[in-house]
Amino acid sequence: MEACEEAKGGSAISIHHLQPL
What we know:
- The structure is a single chain.
- The protein is an all-alpha fold.
- Helix content is about 70%, strand content about 0%.
- It is built from 2 helices and no strands.
- The longest helix is centred in the C-terminal third of the chain and has 8 residues, at about 10-20.
- It is globular.
- The termini are close together.
């Protein structure tokens, strides 16, 4: 899910760790 990380720029990472949806 590297695309998600690049899309948000970091914010997504925190969310993915809590809720990987």
